[in-house]
Amino acid sequence: MDYPSKVLAKAVDEISGLPGIGRKTALRLALHLLKQPASRAVSLGNSLISLVNDIKYCKECHNFSDFEVCEICSNPKRHDDLICIVEDVRDVIAIENTGKYTGKYLILGGKISPMEGIGPSQLNIPSIEKKINDGKVKEFIFALSATMEGDTTAYYIYKKFKNFDISFSSIARGISVGDELEYADEISLGRSIVNRLPYNEEKS
After folding, report:
1. Among 25, 105, 144, 201, which is least packed by CB within 10 angstroms?
2. Dist. CA 77–CA 163, nearest whole Å
């Protein structure tokens, strides 16, 4: 597709590089921005620059944060003895939207997937041992996607830490097998958290 401006073409190239956005949609978004007050585009650009430069990772759970410790981990009303293990930030957002969970989180940063070249060493699994050694945690909840990779990741973690004096549970399978957690409806996800199952019994 030919564009009347190299500046416009560059903008379309950058926008179309985002997930789920093709070149036609990118062009439509670029033209929309050109019709807006310049301050709108500047504000958008500044927010993206701030996203890259200013966002931090919580040192406790690896969630995105404005500070060294995120709002969930620093909230005294959240339970220190209950940790929900998830794959990424989107899963935290999904669970928080249910309003049913009062513990804290640990974000692995993915799941074990040999096909994609992702092994245990590339995940935040050492943080699990650190939390165990801190002596506050009584239960870890696996809230991983109901896929082969999600199950493999949960099983690896369980085998690695099962001899510690810690309980492991898994969200109830109100989530369809093969589904990613972020796409579950809030009611089903909330019930899955509340009605979680002991992990060792579930696997037997």
Report:
1. 201
2. 29
CA distance 24 to 6: 16
Q: Which residue's structure tokens are 């093969």?
A: 178
Closest CA to 171 of 186, 191, 155: 191
102: DSSP letter: -
Are 169 and 196 a contacting pair, CB within 8 Å? yes
Segments in the chain forming alpha helices (H): 6-16, 23-35, 38-54, 89-96, 126-134, 148-161, 186-194, 199-203
Nearest Cα to 156, choosing from 121, 197, 181, 182?
Answer: 121
How do residues 143-165 score in pLDDT, each as one tens digit? 998 888 998 999 999 999 999 99
First and final C-alpha spacing in the chain: 57
Whole-model pTM above 0.85?
Answer: no
pLDDT, tens digit (0-9, with 9 covering 90-100), for 65-97 = 999 999 999 999 999 999 999 999 999 999 999
Tokens describing residue 148? 């082969």
Rounded Cα–Cα distance for residues 148 and 145 (Å): 9
Closest by Cα among 49, 50, 105 to 79: 105
The answer to whether 89 touches 109, Cβ cutoff 8 Å, is: no
The answer to whether 105 touches 82, Cβ cutoff 8 Å, is no
Q: CB of 81 within 8 A of CB of 138? A: yes
